Amino acid sequence: MTIRIVAAALLLAVSASTALAQKFENLAQTPPMGWNSWNKLGCNVDERTIREMADAMGASGMKDAGYEYIVIDDCWQVGRDAHGDVLADPERFPSGIKALADYVHGKGLKFGLYSDAGWKTCGGRTGSRGREFQDAKRYAEWGVDYLKYDWCFTDGLKAEGSYQTMSTALREAGHPIVFSLCEWGQAKPATWASPVGHLWRTTGDITACFDCIDDHGDWKSFGVLAILDMQEGLRTQAGPGRWNDPDMLEVGNGMSENEDRAHFSIWAMLAAPLIAGNDLRHMSPGTRAILVNKAVVAIDQDRLGVQGFRHAAKDGVEYWFKPLAGGDWAFMALNRSKQVKKIEFDWAQQVVRDVLSARDAQLQTMRYSLRDLWKHEPAGDTGKPLAASLPAHDVLMLRLTPLGAAK
Ligand code: GLA
Question: From ligand 1's centre to the CA of 76, what distance in Å?
Fold first, then answer.
């Protein structure tokens, strides 16, 4: 009897600790959508600006298009009090983080914060190292729904263990929270992060440039195409509740409209988190039209949750497919080059088969209607070859819907 009780207690203890080691389930069933302060504002964050961004999220139609999280990145924190509790900058956030979270929640949105696994953040502010449980408890009290957790000043730490610690701390604090790992892909988080968090960065920082790599000495930032190329081989790890994160959007931050459109389309094909990084208060109509294109957002947010794949590449143009729920497919022709490209693509000649989702488009025997997701109009069907002209650094993005057997 006694042995049985001890065994049962042991079993309970083991299952409780395993449960604690797991992230919150049923969150981020589609890639998270929102806005983050870093790409546009850097350290220049304060409560008034954040409130204005939350207002603009509603007023601009972005909330209606599915954007949900307002995330303050680095530099909101200035230190710790005598108890070791993290302190928000009292000049920039005089009402405190809880009041700001309440304001964001009052707009029907969710609220996110940033910290770092090391002893300092990348911006040199206090990190969470050694204070994980204390910080997680505070975030829960404030009603934080999303935590981006960076990887600066982590000498001597191992990524998997550090992120596991914060994941457990968040879980123990009890408030459901999306956990966003920002480890830049160095320790291959795609291979271990799925039980720990909901999304993980796969690369170093993005920069608002389509085709370049910026060398800053001891670190580099990457343009859209460079980041795209670094996603090779990662798609098998992604799915509902676990996403590869090729970094936040640079739409509206200085690239041409073609490039912004291509950037957004690529992220949708990758089932990437759509975290806008521009000033939502002052968007050009072109920028806004890209960010709130619901037809493209629907490709990203498709409930099947399968990351797209490169099907073919020829003469500077790549052809991508992404299987969608209910038998549809998304298609993207991406012109990587600086010249206009005329493309011819004979659907009937393509074998589009995806082992990961066990889907075969059967383009030889099935006919699909085509819808142009940027022109918002029908574009014929797969019964005849596609002929199109692609401007430099631009895309053609189509949605294929089954029509029945090909003639
Ligand atoms: C790192 C991250 C960025 C941003 C900055 C903040 O570089 O990768 O996304 O959070 O830190 O300092």
Answer: 13
